[in-house]
């Protein structure tokens, strides 16, 4: 960085306790210390004095055969700012988004609440760091996306480059969702040598990808810290990875997006709510997964903005936003709030949920909702538009807000129109794994009811999870659960992608023919399941799914030809498929020769099945004269070959043999 005139945080490497103490004394406390090779900041920390550094080095030494510690000057309390930059091999560069951590520099981004775009930077600060981030990426000749992180002094324009991450990272995921800019897709294309100028902007589908999104909304990412899942884990977030997932929310105002994000952390959290007890200064100084609620409590207790800034070093802008939420709670915690339209609208714009308002106004959630709807206070549907008023937006990426007076996209009331329903499905996936048989059955019935709705659509990951669980339920000991699982599979065919349909068919085919490892009951239920899936594939559109039906037919034909003994299940499925789809000559033209081989091979072993097979083929495909002649030749060998045998045992109760 020195070669381009930029400042990076100076550091030195210590290989022993003595070296570490000497370097810390030279740099000056407080210092950062972390192993040279660490994943996600593992075993990283701070040392305020000589004693704490000794304890830290001793702890790291106990878990490493070779001690290599990076010691650098700590800039705790400084702002942590990041820029996501994209560059192609032709040196075209854009800044997709800027991000700002609410917590000061002491915390790793993964454990801090992050806001996009940055909220507290002045115009000079923003443009300075933007220019530096582009300068760094060009100097390093990075192609694709890159995340550049800065430590910024809140008192003056002084900064250090603290980290440069090339390629996709956790921050890239957040930026993609915050802006709608497909960083993964763009990075892959740039790696193939394409230019930002030639790639299309996915938001407009008209302009090129060489544009910088403009965010007229606020996106907030909140880490979900499950400290209890870590052995010997303390409540302190420190700077190592402890978050297990992240929550992202979008709103027109910071308060709205912030409270919405907090509600998604846990089902018991209703928003930025104070504890019912008092808090101490230590709870505010130490960053934990509960400090944000300690801040709410402190504001309600009467802590001033200046006092909280001294304790937490959180920027005053954020503290004022927190204070506005708590002040509304203090001033309007009575029943009259839900009777006043302006107060109710203000509450919704501050991010309060109906349940939260009811809690503070000694009312009930249905009463608050009824009052709100009586005042015609409803959220507006807004579209992620990063090129406002310049080009029409074609990307269906939406969010709800109470800030506004019109919808960007008009709600559709027609039931036949598909919408994305995802909330209850994730809940039911877990329920279907319950050890309680009745609970499992009820959940499957609920899912069947949802699958029958035209407006019910599943995303890719949910499709995969549901398919896995339903296939597993076929092996259940409860016959009713098995029957409902089969019905689920037949309905899923209309809702899932071809990849998942193939997984279902392959699993069922394998279960039907695997005599050695699959139980007789599972083979039996898989037989019915496969027939139900085939029926749905045919109903869904034979031409579009013909290749899958061909794969199923080929599987069973080859299984018969490769086995010494005849498999009644194989032949039964083949006859079923022929009965259902024989009129479509394109599907079975390529199987005529193999079907003839099956008839010749099994001529005297299973007369009923073979006769039914010949009967269907010879009577439904008269245009294939050669095959009809072959059937005539067989008639000389066995007088019963073409005899009509509409045996109901060979078919489902709903199936009529071809005549």
From TrEMBL:
One Gene Ontology term, aspect cellular component: cytosol
Keywords: ATP-binding, Ligase, Magnesium, Manganese, Metal-binding, Nucleotide-binding, Pyrimidine biosynthesis
Transmembrane segments: none
Highest taxon above the source species: Eukaryota
The keyword Metal-binding belongs to this UniProt entry's keyword annotation: yes
Gene3D superfamilies named among the record's database cross-references: ATP-grasp fold, B domain, Carbamoyl-phosphate synthetase, large subunit oligomerisation domain, Leucine-rich Repeat Variant
Protein name: ATP-grasp domain-containing protein
GO biological process assignments: 'de novo' pyrimidine nucleobase biosynthetic process; citrulline biosynthetic process; glutamine metabolic process; UTP biosynthetic process
Catalyzed chemical reaction(s): hydrogencarbonate + NH4(+) + 2 ATP = carbamoyl phosphate + 2 ADP + phosphate + 2 H(+)
The species this protein was found in: Rotaria sordida
InterPro entries assigned to the protein according to its UniProt record, in alphabetical order: ARM-like (IPR011989), ARM-type_fold (IPR016024), ATP-grasp (IPR011761), CarbamoylP_synth_lsu_oligo_sf (IPR036897), CPAse_ATP-bd (IPR005479), CPSase_dom (IPR005483), CPSase_lsu_oligo (IPR005480)
Domain ATP-grasp: 1-192
A GO term for molecular function: metal ion binding
């Amino acid at each position: 960085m020195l070669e381009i005139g930029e400042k990076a945080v100076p550091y030195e490497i210590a290989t022993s306790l003595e070296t570490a103490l000497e370097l810390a004394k030279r740099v000056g406390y407080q210092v950062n210390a972390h192993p040279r090779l660490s994943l996600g900041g593992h075993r990283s920390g701070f040392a305020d004095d000589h004693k704490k550094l000794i304890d830290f080095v001793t702890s790291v030494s106990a878990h490493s055969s070779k001690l290599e510690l990076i010691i650098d000057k700590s800039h705790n309390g400084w702002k942590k700012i990041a820029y996501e930059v994209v560059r192609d091999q032709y040196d075209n560069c854009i800044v997709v988004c800027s991000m700002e951590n609410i917590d000061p520099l002491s915390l790793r981004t993964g454990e801090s609440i992050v806001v996009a775009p940055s909220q507290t930077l002045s115009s000079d600060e923003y443009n300075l760091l933007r220019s530096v981030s582009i300068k760094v990426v060009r100097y390093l000749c990075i192609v694709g996306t890159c995340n550049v992180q800065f430590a910024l002094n809140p008192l003056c324009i002084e900064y250090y480059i603290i980290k440069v991450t090339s390629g996709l990272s956790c921050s890239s995921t957040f930026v993609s969702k915050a802006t709608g800019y497909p960083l993964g897709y763009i990075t892959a294309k740039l790696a193939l040598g394409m230019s930002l100028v030639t790639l299309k902007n996915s938001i407009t589908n008209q302009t090129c990808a060489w544009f910088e999104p403009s965010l007229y909304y606020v996106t907030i990412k909140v880490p979900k810290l499950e400290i209890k899942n870590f052995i010997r884990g303390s409540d302190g977030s420190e700077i190592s990875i402890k978050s297990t997932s992240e929550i992202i929310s979008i709103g027109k105002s910071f308060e709205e997006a912030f409270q919405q994000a907090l509600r998604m952390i846990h089902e018991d959290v209703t928003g930025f709510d104070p504890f019912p007890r008092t808090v101490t200064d230590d709870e505010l100084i130490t960053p934990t997964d509960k400090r944000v609620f300690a801040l709410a409590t402190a504001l309600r207790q009467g802590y001033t903005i200046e006092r909280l800034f001294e304790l937490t070093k959180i920027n005053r802008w954020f503290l004022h936003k927190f204070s506005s939420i708590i002040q509304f709670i203090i001033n309007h915690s009575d029943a009259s709030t839900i009777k006043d339209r302006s107060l109710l609208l203000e509450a919704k714009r501050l991010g309060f949920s109906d349940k939260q308002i009811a809690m503070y106004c000694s009312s009930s959630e249905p009463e608050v909702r009824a009052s709100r709807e009586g005042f015609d206070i409803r959220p507006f549907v807004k579209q992620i538009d990063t090129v406002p008023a310049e080009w029409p937006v074609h990307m269906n990426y939406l969010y709800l807000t109470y800030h506004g007076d019109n919808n960007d996209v008009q709600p559709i009331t027609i039931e036949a129109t598909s919408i994305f329903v995802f909330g209850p499905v994730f809940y039911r996936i877990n329920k279907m794994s319950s050890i309680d048989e009745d609970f499992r059955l009820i959940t499957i019935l609920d899912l069947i009811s949802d699958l029958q709705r035209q407006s019910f659509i599943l995303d890719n990951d949910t499709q995969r999870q549901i398919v896995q669980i339903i296939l597993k339920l076929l092996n259940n000991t409860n016959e009713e659960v098995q029957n409902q699982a089969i019905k689920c599979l037949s309905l899923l065919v209309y809702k899932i992608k071809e990849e998942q349909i193939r997984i279902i068919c392959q699993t069922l085919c394998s279960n039907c023919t695997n005599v050695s490892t699959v139980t007789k009951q599972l083979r039996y239920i898989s037989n019915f399941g496969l027939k139900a899936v085939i029926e749905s594939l045919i109903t869904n559109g034979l031409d579009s799914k013909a290749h899958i039906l061909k794969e199923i037919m080929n599987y069973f034909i080859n299984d018969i030809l490769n086995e010494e003994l005849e498999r009644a299940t194989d032949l039964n499925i083949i006859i079923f498929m022929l009965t259902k789809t024989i009129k479509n000559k394109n599907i079975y033209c390529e199987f005529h020769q193999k079907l003839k081989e099956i008839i010749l091979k099994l001529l005297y072993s299973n007369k009923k099945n073979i006769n039914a097979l010949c009967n269907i083929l010879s009577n439904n495909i008269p245009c294939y004269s050669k095959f009809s002649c072959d059937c005539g030749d067989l008639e000389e060998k066995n007088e019963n070959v073409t005899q009509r045998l509409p045996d109901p045992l060979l078919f489902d109760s709903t199936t009529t043999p071809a005549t």
